[in-house]
Design a protein that fits this description.
Elements: E1 5-10, H1 17-25, E2 30-36, H2 39-46, E3 54-58, H3 65-70, E4 76-79, H4 91-103, E5 108-112, H5 125-138, E6 145-151, E7 153-154, H6 162-169, E8 171-174, E9 184-185, H7 187-199, H8 202-205, E10 209-212, H9 219-230, E11 235-238, H10 241-251, H11 256-268, H12 278-282, H13 289-295
The protein binds NADP nicotinamide-adenine-dinucleotide phosphate.
Length: 301
Amino acid sequence: MVYEERIFLVGATGNIGKPLVQKLLTNPKVALTLYARTPAKVQELYGDQSEGKLEVVQGGYDNQKPFKDSIAGHTRLFLLIQTPGFQEGHIHNVRNFAETAYAAGVQQIVLISGFCSSMPWRNNIVANLGYSWESGIDSIPNRKNFVTLRPAFFMSNQALGDALSVKNYNKIIDSQEIDSFKPWISPDDIGELAANILQDPIEKHGDAVYEMVGDPRTPKEHVEILSRVLGREIVYEKVSEEQSYEIMTKQAGMSHLVAYTFVFLTAQLANERATPGLSILLGRQPETLEQWIEKNKSIFL
Ligand SMILES: NC(=O)c1ccc[n+]([C@@H]2O[C@H](COP(=O)([O-])OP(=O)(O)OC[C@H]3O[C@@H](n4cnc5c(N)ncnc54)[C@H](OP(=O)(O)O)[C@@H]3O)[C@@H](O)[C@H]2O)c1
């Protein structure tokens, strides 16, 4: 089979990667190469594809030799780096992936950064990390096109904390004011926007930066939605910032910096509005929090 383009994807087996790859697989003109630590996971997620449609290169962030050996012949690179501790951040790895890719002839990189990258210089460790990633790629001499997605708070984050407290106590527990907004975005929207960009003509998006807030909701609305979808009453328990920090460090085992930053961002990002024009980029309205919870309600049961 002859394809018009081959797209290389790093970090495409998670929340964003799944909808992204599934959408790209429906395009008969493109072939994909996935960079993954566990090839068997790729097979399990995306099944058997016709010859050449989906190839897997086994590799991680620190040893990029498998990437270097296989990136030639690709026109575009999707780059998502997972950083549980934020401050460690793989800053050099991000730039190295990008430098190698441009040098091998890649014409467009689509990076998953974050909404905090739009905040003031060194405002917090997440902002600092995103800024370092973006400036690392942006400053590569003679680089080609560089598109950045800056999504806000993933709806899939509910699986980490909210789902447990809903399951066990019928509660959402947070330090956020009950009537202030949390800037939610569905990972399906992020994957779909990345897929759109990776299939559009490269010059259409150039060096675009796209913020992504899909459906901002208050904690009051959040528990109303959960109660409606789950068919039982879910309530909101507002705790102090100190209590929230305690829960994250003592019960969830988070480090000081990560827990502190979550408390800080909960208040700092309250009342962000939905991103103007997101429906233009998606070709439809962004997914609502209610639609996401309906689709994923098993995590709360
Ligand atoms: N959660 C939020 O609210 C939020 C907000 C803004 C931005 N972000 C950004 O969004 C990204 C997370 O996206 P996601 O939810 O789709 O992540 P995810 O579901 O955790 O998936 C992470 C992906 O990265 C791969 N990966 C992890 N560690 C790796 C390593 N050492 N070497 C190679 N691959 C590795 C995983 O591959 P395997 O299959 O090998 O595990 C998987 O494909 C991060 O960059 C984060 O900073 C998140």
